[in-house]
Amino acid sequence: MVLEIFLFISSAFFSYYIFQLLLDEAIFVPLPKKTIIKMLRLARVKKNDLIYDLGSGDGRVLIIAAKEFGCKCVGIEKSYLLYLISKLKIKREKLEKNIRVIHGNFFDFKLKNASVVFMYLSKKIVNKLKTKLERELKNCRVVSADHRIEGWKIDKKIKTGHFYSYLYRLK
């Protein structure tokens, strides 16, 4: 029975990846905890911050930010399977008071009161997001893994694992 469940979940993830690649969408690639912490430190996350994780996957960034930095978090995840996994992990960690996860496309949601936006997305999607971020965010730090935001001035760049992460400040 356990093997059948494992095979079902594995085939669901594989199908999800193939489908996302065909649509030229970002796929879920989990960041290591060490990289997430480096990126959150780069953004100078504090207890009073509200972090939005765009494409929050299995919720690991949200959980680490809430546990290690004590801040409030909102994740937006398009994949229903990853959304459910993140909800279960957040409940297991008893972090429901600090973390809210939304199932949907982050282009359809306002990033209300965000002080930090965290993203590990494809280059195409990062640059598609640029206008939305400029329109909706004030006094916000944006931290992007692996991809620069074209036309924005980099506040700081650090090596995080096998790629660079970039910090931007929107005024």
Secondary-structure blueprint:
Elements: H1 2-22, H2 33-42, E1 50-54, H3 60-69, E2 72-77, H4 80-92, E3 99-103, E4 116-119, H5 123-136, E5 140-145, E6 156-160, E7 163-170
Parallel strand pairs: 1-2, 1-4, 2-3, 4-5
Antiparallel strand pairs: 5-7, 6-7
Tell me what you see in this structure.
The protein is an alpha/beta fold and 171 residues long. The chain is built from five helices and seven strands. The protein has helices spanning 2-22, 33-42, 60-69, 80-92, 123-136; strands at 50-54, 72-77, 99-103, 116-119, 140-145, 156-160, 163-170. It has a seven-stranded mixed beta sheet, with helices on one face. Helix 4 (80-92) links the parallel strand 2 and strand 3. Helix 2 crosses helix 3. The model has no long low-confidence stretch (mean pLDDT 90).
